[in-house]
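User: Sequence in, structure out. Go.
Assistant: Echoing your sequence, followed by the structure tokens.
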Amino acid sequence: MPSHVTSVTYFRGGCVLGDLVVIFKGLVEFAALILLGQGLVYLLSFGRHETNAVYRFFRLLSSPVVKSVRVITPKQVSDRHLPMVGFFLLFWLWFGLLLAKAAILIPASGASPV
């Protein structure tokens, strides 16, 4: 390691930016899986999803995503569609983070991108 570079710049042989992208990608995956689980419980509860404790727990965990989506979507979008919109936005955010991870970590590793 060059003498002018501090140990904070490098972490596990990579760069801090790469580690931040990996951590943020993991959080996006977690939020998307929570929304997916909420949707599956909704489908399997046969109309009684509001009385289902698992569904209410998923709704509690996914509320930050749904509230954020409410802020950026037009008022014409129904509240009932917000979790689905949030899931698709998280998918595209995940895809962008996947590309960023590849762009940051492949050159840092010295490996060939092909």
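User: And one key feature?
Assistant: The chain has three helices and two strands.
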